[in-house]
Amino acid sequence: MVFRSLLKREVKAIVKNPGFLVALLLIPLFYVSLGSFMNTGIRSVVTQNTGVIGVVDEDNTTLSRAFVAYLNNTLNGRVRLVTGVSELPGFSTIVVVPRGFGSEALNSTPRLVTYTPLGSLSLTSIGSLPPLLLQGSFNEALRYALAALRSNTTINFYSNATVGLDIKIVYEGRVLDYGRVSTDMGFGIASTFVVAILMSFTMGFATQASAVEKAEKAFELLLSQPVRRVYIALAKIVASIVAAVIMGAVLFGSLFVSLFSMSLSSQLTPQAAGVSYPATSQVIDLNTILFMLVTAVLGTLLSGGLGVVIGGLVSDERTAGIIVTPLTMVMLGLAIIVQFTGLGLNMPTSVVSGLTVAPMPLLLSLSSTIGDYTYFYVALASSLAEVVAVYVLAFKVYNSEFVVTGLQLRGRVRGGS
């Protein structure tokens, strides 16, 4: 009976907490929206991969014409002959059969040049490019064309014949190399998760650093010392950032070891015969790495400041945990959303990215890919302005009595006269 009474008391305390009620409303709304964003990104990829494919036959030989005909049969009539890449807006992809394709097919590995228009760069759009998914169809069409050219042979005779791909992506009016885009996007998406996780850790540590001392009645003793309250807030923020970096290093180090061991085992796995994907390894430039570090610093400074504000305003640890948990989930959710939807290069997206910080690494990668950092600079300025505003608020909270008593959200019951 005693345990039941205690349990009932604790449950009531949690349920009646305003922060818990707000979290109950925000979390479902956010993750329903998250599912909608992910579904939109996946639908756009499916639409693109079922579209019509244009072919520019620059070689115009017997073999190249047979290749185009068999490719059309393989793809159920989705191939159309076009005069040039200028007709790209009407197709999901344009395949250029370059001059010399026929002679290369008879002696070595012929190459095709593909152009794919993308409205956004995301993990789904880059990883599911039509040329990548059509590699097997290209190989099959080439084998049929070679067998038809020499009537005394069969397709099995050319089972090792493959087509090399030179993949181009058309984005924002620019023709980009697939390898560069893939490398930049992979770095940007991975960095987005790193920044989001570091921000989550920092906010949690900073909030608890304030809330715990308040619950343990240690703030009164700390604030009675001849030390400016601003220094106390800064000390908590810096300590939280250090703890977050240590925690992040352990987490990402463990993930790296795990992925490295998986890559070693994958090298022993037989690869599918006849499929040759283009190499994507590129070098990340130094400016991108430096800007990424600046973004990570801004993210931890912002989340540390927000954590101190929350910890200074709440009245107990329980409320602090209830408020911080959905905020950290939102940070991680943003990192997931941009994987599927990408980021548009425009002012509203840049400002939102700067205010939330987590998507900024992906915006940086997009800027690096197209060679224009204008929108990233807008995000950077927005983030700096927000950090300054949050720190001004944090110092005001620490200079007020709320840092000792907490903000009382529940109304007090007055005794009768």
Walk me through the structure.
The radius of gyration is 29 Å and the shape is elongated. α2 packs parallel to α12 (317-341), α3 (62-74) crosses α7 (135-149) and α14 runs antiparallel to α15 (374-398). The chain is built from 16 helices and 6 strands. Mean pLDDT is 79; it is low at 264-277 and 411-417. A 6-stranded mixed β-sheet has the order 2-1-3-4-5-6. It has helices at residues 2-15, 18-49, 62-74, 101-107, 123-127, 130-133, 135-149, 178-215, 219-223, 229-266, 286-313, 317-341, 347-356, 360-370, 374-398, 402-405, and strands spanning 53-57, 79-81, 93-97, 111-117, 164-171, 174-177. It starts with a helix and ends in a 12-residue tail after the last helix. The chain is an alpha/beta fold and 417 residues long.
